[in-house]
Amino acid sequence: MKKGKIFVVGFGPGDREHITKRAIDAMQDSDYIIGYKTYVDLIRHLVTAKSIVSTGMTEEVSRAQEAVRQAESGNIVSVISSGDAGVYGMAGLVYEVLIEKGWTEAEGIGVEIVPGVSAINSCASLLGAPVMHDACTISLSDHLTPWQVIEKRIEAAAMADFVIAFYNPKSGRRTRQIVEAQRILLKYRSPHTPVGLVKSAYRDTQNIILTTLKDMLDHEIGMLTTVVVGNASSFFYDNKIITPRGYQRKYTLGEEKQPLRPHERLRKEAEPWALDQELAAREAGQDQEPVKNKKSSLELAQKAVALLDKVDTSLIVNQPIEEIFEFAVSPGIANKQLTPEQMRCLADVIGKKGTLEYTPDHRFMIKMPTATPAKIVAELEKAGLLVMPVGDVLNLKACDFCYGEKAESIPYADEIASTLSGMKLPKELHIGFNGCGMACYRAVFDDIGIVYRKKKFDLFIGAKPVGRTAHAGQPVAEGIEPDKLIPLLTSLVEEYKENAHPNERLFKYFKRMKKLGHFNYQDVSCKIEIEPAPCGD
Q1: Which residues, in sequence order, are bridge partners of residue 7?
Q2: What whole-number distance in Å separates Cα of residue 511 and Cα of residue 464?
Q3: Which helix (H) or strand (E) holds 450?
Q4: What is the tally of helices (H) and strands (E) in the chain?
Q5: How many CA atoms are closer than 13 Å to the CA of 93, on its beta-carbon side?
Q6: pTM for the predicted model, two decimal places
Q7: Do 508 and 487 touch, CB atoms closer than 8 A?
Q8: Which of 20, 136, 415, 500 lies deepest, with the highest CB count within 10 Å?
Q9: Cα–Cα distance between 455 and 405 in angstroms, integer?
Q10: pLDDT, position 260
Q11: Cα(324)–Cα(148) distance, rounded to whole angstroms?
């Protein structure tokens, strides 16, 4: 079999002028292009791949897994990231997926990381020269890193006077992080510190704002914005932010004739602040002062390090690594009532560091840092709670079961949940279960809808619940015998799992393939004709 290869390509800010030749060559040599939809759209005109797979923002793992699967099948694959693929990009995740499969460089598929221009570089070029001195990048997204860790990183960078580039500063739901970052920085820096806000660098929607640390929140900041905060030496000049490198200590910028010639500036004696200068002078016999009680700068530094044992270690930033555990909890498939004891258990388990969000699916979404997820699950299950995985998995949504004739259908819902719930899929899939023919729980608006009617089941497939072309699922079968239901659902879901693209919803798969199982696709979408609005005067 032909040996495949993965290129992990960073294509820079997105415009043609700032994509490297190697990046273009790699993408044009590839059979598959895999990436976040927005990024794919930026480079689509540059590639000729036989297949382009674009997925949503949170589908990084499925993208990496699909890339490895295609490369193992002998294909050449480019996994693309904007900026540099090794800076908050896909490079590390691709390697993680490969490591899980036992990959080695000597015997496994080929992997090449193609570097690109990261946002800190592209944005800095538009702002002037803000990162001429020591700088760092900090992502304000706490989806993968606990906020407590991010706070300490901001604090450390602020104390050390780094120029800071904030990535992912704000989103529709994450609004407090940039506010907290400003608060921390103002503890150590002047409110007049220069700040540059660059949105969509080198793209058609590029926007650049120069402001100050005090006023930065008065301007629009979003996910496409990179926030560059200067250090104590940074200054504004003619709509630019300049951070001096420090050459003014070595020669005078305003003088035509410099006190030191270029080669003389590199001599050690031209840098009297360096740690090893006094010691070097002493060893060379050039120290004119008595050396009996004199300590060099290097010796003083070594003595300071030796004193660290006596330092209050609570002042040192030392954050243990914690995993972020995300999961869902409910009182049960056929039960929507929480007891006070269960609510207390949830509060105790989540604590102050976790978050709890109620969803329309009658579930609680929980996100919390922990190194012992199994212990957490055991505590919740002991309290009688149902713990479920989240992400691209199969979820069963059942109606409230107002009993009467519906009580007969509860065991079937439980059996579906025990058989299929939590199955890993290309995209999150919802099965809606209604306990009677009224279908008041709107199961027909889920990916797969099941309606219990006259001791048998009706089946609906491929609903599209949102958008201008929203529609209910296509009715595909009536009167399914109870003993036939689980095998039928299992075969449909496994077919979808095996053949769908990453991030492809069931209705899109059904429409693309024109068939699911032995059910043929019919277009049931509703095209809405919009009447033109009259123009104003």
Answers
A1: 78, 112
A2: 11
A3: strand 448-453
A4: 15, 24
A5: 21
A6: 0.62
A7: no
A8: 500
A9: 9
A10: 58
A11: 12
Q: CB of 425 within 8 A of CB of 498? A: no
**Helix, strand, coil percentages, rounded to 5, for the chain:** 35, 25, 45
Tokens of 423: 């199955």
CA–CA gap between residue 5 and residue 72 (Å, rounded): 8
* Chain mean position to CA 75: 27
pLDDT at 442: 81
The more confident residue out of 383 and 533 is 383
Nearest residue to 494 via CA among 411, 385, 420, 395: 420
Instruction: Please write the tens of the pLDDT for every residue from 377-422.
Output: 999 999 999 999 988 899 998 887 665 556 788 889 989 999 999 8
- Say if strands 194-199 and 225-229 run parallel, antiparallel, or are unpaired: antiparallel
Question: Rounded to an integer, what is the distance from CA 233 to the centroid of its chain?
Answer: 33
pLDDT of residue 537: 41
Q: What is the pLDDT of residue 484?
A: 94
What pLDDT does residue 167 have? 96
Give the number of other CB atoms < 10 A from CB of residue 211.
16
Cα distance from N-terminal residue to C-terminal residue, the chain: 68
Q: Going edge to edge, which strands form the sheet with 128-129?
A: 128-129, 241-242, 235-236
Nearest Cα residue to 174 out of 166, 186, 162, 164: 166
